[in-house]
């Protein structure tokens, strides 16, 4: 089956890679929804709660700095490195990801080639003016006072640059992902259960636009029946067999 995937990649000219938690669990990052995942261990803080309640903001920032969610600090694995190599070769046009761990960028994929549907947990932004803040500059003051950080420019609330439950999906990444999807000739899903809307619409859109669809995931997905190839394998070992790193 890996030979079939190799052939599809070799024949394609514009591959879009779509990644979910399954690629990052191979780096030791826990997923969100499965038994034992992040949300089975701690209740998510909804966006509306974060905005309205200082205690919720304080708890959210405690989780950031005590590493409770475990989304940051890991290293890219063989799957990330293989995807980065395909980008370097010009085979992959964009990487659309549901992950917030920055591991695609850390593996060498240029920032402009990564489309983050759910944001990024490795830095923060002001909800008012959009100013970016690095977590390290916020860590010391918060640990000292436990006062949730506010923007030095507009006094707005600062939040990690992730899309929380109840928060609107950012329009620009969604538009970029749609454009990349309709223009690809192979859509390669790596490690997504494809149950989260609206992100799970992109493989369907790719198929409707004439692209081939490959799904690599440990467990079956609801979209397996429309895929051209389905592989229930570990991502890193599979891609390592078919993609030679330079």
Low-pLDDT runs of 5+ residues are none
CATH superfamily of the largest domain: TPP-binding domain
The sequence of SSEs as H and E is HEHHHHHEHEEEHEHEHEEH
Q: Mean pLDDT across all residues, rounded?
A: 93
Number of strand segments = 9
Q: Tell me the radius of gyration.
A: 19 Å
In CATH, the architecture of the largest domain is: 3-Layer(aba) Sandwich
* Multimeric state: single chain
**Main sheet: strands, sense, barrel:** 6 strands, parallel
CATH class (first level) name of the largest domain? Alpha Beta
How is the secondary structure organized here?
Layout: H1 2-11, E1 15-19, H2 21-25, H3 38-41, H4 47-52, H5 54-66, H6 78-88, E2 92-97, H7 103-106, E3 114-116, E4 119-126, E5 132-134, H8 135-145, E6 158-162, H9 171-182, E7 186-190, H10 201-208, E8 212-216, E9 229-231, H11 235-242
Parallel strand pairs: 1-2, 1-7, 2-3, 7-8, 8-9
Antiparallel strand pairs: 4-5, 4-6
Kindly describe this structure.
- This protein is an alpha/beta fold and 246 residues long.
- It contains eleven helices and nine strands.
- It has helices at 2-11, 21-25, 38-41, 47-52, 54-66, 78-88, 103-106, 135-145, 171-182, 201-208, 235-242, and strands spanning 15-19, 92-97, 114-116, 119-126, 132-134, 158-162, 186-190, 212-216, 229-231.
- The strands form two sheets. The protein has a six-stranded parallel sheet with strand order 3-2-1-7-8-9, with helices on both faces. A three-stranded antiparallel sheet has the order 5-4-6.
- β2, α7 and β3 (114-116) form a beta-alpha-beta unit.
- The protein is elongated.
